[in-house]
Each structure stands twice: as C-alpha cells, then as structure tokens.
Amino acid sequence: MNIHDYFDPVALEKPSNHHLSDKAVFCRNIYIHTPDTPLSNLDRFNLALIGVPEDRNATVSGSAAAPDQVRNHLFQLFRANPKLKIIDLGNLKGGRTVQDTYFALRDVLLDLMERKLTAVILGGSQDLTYGIYLAFEKLDRKFSFVTIDSRLDMGIIDDQIKPESYLIPILSRKKELLFSYTNLGHQTYFVDQGDVDFLKDNFHHTLRLGDIRQDMGKVEPCLRDAGFVSLDVNSIRQSDAPACTHPSPNGFTGEEICQISRYAGLSPVIKCFGLFNLLPDADRGGQTAQLAAQSIWYFIDGVSQRKEEHPLSAPDAFKKFIVSFSEMDHDIIFYKSLETERWWFEVPVIRQSKTRHVLISCALDDYQKACNQEIPGRWLNAFQKLN
C-alpha cells in the first residue's frame, strides 16, 4: 500500500511559543507531513501521530474538528525524549462511508505495526475503536484491549456502529482471538448491571472509578497486557474537561488521566493509543484540548521509557514466589522484577494431561491476596478463560 494516499497533510499555522525556544518545542523535534514535506522512509520512526476527523456516526457531532485542535496544543508542549523518533502523518482521509474510514484506519495501522511503529490516534468519535480492533483481528493472534470510559458502550444492538454501541460488534466477533477486554473508570449510575454481568460471564472486566481511586496502581497490569487503548474524554470530570459529548461532574481528574496515559505508554505491548469524543466548539479556552494534548504527551513520554521484561527469558532479573493453596490443586507462581518491581503470575493451561503456563501481568495486591489464601480474581478469570 502507498500510505501517502491515505492522508491529508498537516495544515496548521505556526504555534505560538511564549515560554519555550524553537529548539525545545515539540513540533520542532518531530517530522511533520506537510504539503512541502511528503511522507518517506517511515521505517526510521518509532511513533506516528494520526488525526482521524470522523464523527458521522456520532449522536453528538463536532468531534471531527478535534484532531487539529489537540495537535495545535500538543505542538506547543516541551519536546519529547529525543531518542524517540516521531512522525505526524496528518489527517486520515474520510472514506465514502464510515465503514470505509474504519477499513482505511485498519489498513494504516497494519502497515505501521509491520514497521514496528506505535500509533497515537487523535479522534474523532469513539466508534473509530472498531477500526483499531479490525487491525488487531487481521493479525490473527490473541490480544487484549482496554477502554477508559465512564460508561460501557454496549448500547442497543442494531446494524450501525456508534460511539455508544461499538462494543457489542467487537465482543461478538472472533471471540477466540480476544483474550480479554477491560474497561477502566466506569461510574455505577451510568452502567447497567446486566452489562457488567455480561462482561464477567465472558471473562472480561470493568474497574469502577472509586476502586481505581483507592489504588491507581490497579490499572497498570491491565494496560501492560493490552494491545491498544481507547480513551473517551467523557471519562474525565467536567471541571477538567468540559468539552465532551456527555459531560459529568464526576470522573477522572486531569492528573489521574495523565498518570493512566503514562502507564499505557510504558507498556511494550501497546501498539495504539486513541483519544476520542472531544468537542472543540464547547471548549472554554481550549482547556479540554490542552488536557488531551498533555495526556498524549504523557503517553509518548511513557513510550520513550519502555522496558522489555520477561521473567522466563531473564530469570536472574526476577524474584520467584510460590504460593500454595489448601483448597486448590494448583500453586500460583509469582515473579517480581528486581528493576521495575512489576509483577506477573503463571496461569496453567491444561490440555489432555499436558500442562503449559501463560504469564499474565498482575500487581503486588494479587500476591498479597494469594498469601492470605484468597485466589486473585485476575488469576481465576484467566484460568477460566484458558481452560
């Protein structure tokens, strides 16, 4: 494919820089696809920015104008780690139909993943998550993904994919390829308990906002195993992000969403991070676009500091813990990285008297529960899924 044919070049006025020199500003330290600088030699980059100005299936329109607004504020921030080579591909050309846009996004992401580039998507409405999913499905291997949302976008089953109902078409497709889906930050009064039960019955999971608030570290293992992350601006409280499709007085704070974004960036598995449902016309002083830009900056900062770790490939760099259970036939084996202090556990997969083990990311809290003879929910969920 000729990826140049998929994009319109970036057409922004030079951002105003009042507190940074030209050498320090973000936009002076990346390659930008403009009318005068065409796309070439993508293999030399590590990360690509993609604007997707698409909202034709949205109930509340306006997010199609968000990519350039977020891009403008991102360009005015301090430069990222210079070791990370970044390219802004521009805005994805809209297809004749929304479905065409989904498939165009799929094709672009597949090309970038083949080149080992991480993608950052500036949406657009959140139904674009479906296009991201199609790319991972096309790879034909198991994967997980995470959404950050105050609601579970199950919606009403119909023939049209919308920002409020894109999950059902995803979760009902090739179930053998989707290892796990996790939502972060749902608010109980926005969620039908039946949807929560549906996720649990299908070995998926959602973490309530209040539970995350008690321990932000709970989100890190979920993100560490995810192939992509879809961030809905509606998950952020209205006082911090007023310009979204369904504003609410409760939600993540700006600081919390930036912390979660950095956790996502640190994961060496994540290949795509998308931000959606921002409405520039409702943005007071560009506050929401600024926060969106900062969360993307934190994701990029995390990418620049990624560490590849695997307990079985470098056993000397890990400490091994074995926890036995009086009421279970299986021990649970934990690993702790001596460098980053991140945790994993082994999950046995039993097939015709033969057993192999799969490593799943976890947290210190899971180990502590196991030590108290409580089977960690994350381990049990993975065991049931695999067996």
Features:
alpha/beta, 387 residues, 29% helix, 10-stranded mixed sheet, 11 helices, Arginase, Chain A
What is the level 1 CATH name of the largest domain? Alpha Beta
- Tell me the distance between the termini: 40 Å
Average pLDDT over all residues: 93
CATH topology of the largest domain: Arginase, Chain A
Task: Describe the protein's architecture and organization.
The chain is of the alpha/beta class and 387 residues long. It is 29% helix and 21% strand. It has 11 helices and 14 strands. Strands 1, 2, 3, 4, 5, 6, 7, 8, 9 and 10 form a 10-stranded mixed beta sheet that branches. α1 crosses α9 (287-304), α2 (98-114) packs across α3 and α8 (254-266) packs parallel to α9 (287-304).
In terms of topology, how is this protein built?
Layout: E1 7-8, E2 31-32, E3 47-52, H1 66-75, E4 86-92, H2 98-114, E5 118-123, H3 129-138, E6 143-148, H4 167-171, E7 178-186, H5 193-201, E8 205-208, H6 209-214, H7 219-224, E9 228-232, H8 254-266, E10 272-276, H9 287-304, E11 318-323, E12 332-337, E13 343-351, E14 354-362, H10 364-371, H11 377-386
Write a short abstract of this structure:
The protein is α/β, with parallel strands linked by helices and 387 residues long. It has helices spanning 66-75, 98-114, 129-138, 167-171, 193-201, 209-214, 219-224, 254-266, 287-304, 364-371, 377-386; strands at residues 7-8, 31-32, 47-52, 86-92, 118-123, 143-148, 178-186, 205-208, 228-232, 272-276, 318-323, 332-337, 343-351, 354-362.
